[in-house]
Write a structure and sequence with these properties.
Layout lengths: L2 H6 L2 E2 L5 E4 L5 E2 L2 E2 L1 H12 L8 E8 L6 E11 L3 E10 L2 E11 L23 E2 L14 E7 L11 E8 L8 H8 L15 E11 L11 E11 L2 E10 L4 E12 L1
């Protein structure tokens, strides 16, 4: 199912909860792909946000998300310019995700700068595919085009845990908004996976994403991402994430904690 069809299939009840059943082609093992889980929770929060842009998202992946997923939003606090909204996603066996979204209207400020320079990169069409074999990639990842600018592929024994990628939705009808960007941003495997020399299971535990603009835009759907595994100890890896649009304008920064089994 295409991304836009899946998002359109979300049903809201009178209490404001959203319901959706995620098809198999959006699964990552026995759970819904984490970026989509996050995007579905954000979609549930938007009706309470009053049109304010998303500024940050904090997501805890509590358990496997499968079957019918019900997302229940709660307004924690609303002010003139900001709103804090929590979303609890439930599956047939209980809680699968807990999120807090912070929304904030643009405001005048004496500070206006950006010190986040995009790494050098070849153009997407001149960049090699991250998954060269379509038959050996996770089911959900087939919904994305991913090109490898720098670093190693998964389980390649790379000397470090930095990868730089071009990424885009294959669904060209996907709207250019925060939900779509959140669904895309988590599509690559953790950067630490490139350092492994044999297969090992991974599981995202938490993800924090900060949106640096309310103008989510780019050319031809491509975004440039840099993921850096900064530590890997005692079976857990912590990585930093940054994302720019095709013009090198900052879109998002984030952090992620991943359990690494192997």
């Amino acid at each position: 199912m295409d991304y836009t069809d899946l998002i359109s299939s979300i049903a809201f009840d009178k209490a404001g909860a959203s319901r959706v059943t995620v098809p198999e082609d959006w699964m990552q093992g026995r759970t819904t792909y984490g970026g989509l889980t996050s995007a579905l929770c954000l979609k549930a929060a938007l009706p309470l946000a009053g049109g304010r842009p998303l500024r940050s998202a904090q997501i805890a992946f509590v358990g496997p998300a499968s079957g019918e997923l019900v997302s229940v939003p709660t307004m924690l606090r609303e002010g003139k310019n900001t709103a804090f909204i929590s979303v609890r996603m439930m599956g047939p066996d209980g809680i699968v995700a807990e999120c807090i979204f912070a929304f904030g209207s643009a405001r005048e400020s004496s500070l206006d700068f950006s010190d986040m320079i995009a790494p050098p990169a070849t153009m997407p069409d001149a960049t090699q595919a991250f998954f060269p074999d379509e038959n050996r990639r996770p089911a959900f990842s087939r919904h994305f085009n991913v090109r490898l600018v720098k670093g190693g592929r998964p389980i390649s024994g790379a000397p470090d845990g930095e990868i730089v990628l071009w990424m885009r939705h294959r669904d060209e009808a996907a709207p250019m908004d925060a939900v779509t960007l959140l669904a895309l941003a988590d599509s690559p495997p953790p950067a630490a996976l490139s350092m492994l020399t044999q297969p090992g299971r991974i599981s995202s535990m938490t993800w924090m994403a900060e949106f640096l603009t309310d103008d989510i835009s780019t050319e031809d759907g491509w975004f440039l991402a840099q993921h850096v595994a900064q530590t890997a100890r005692q079976g857990y890896s912590s990585q930093a994430m940054r994302m720019w649009n095709s013009k090198g304008e900052p879109m998002m920064v984030g952090r992620q904690t991943i359990a690494v089994f192997g």
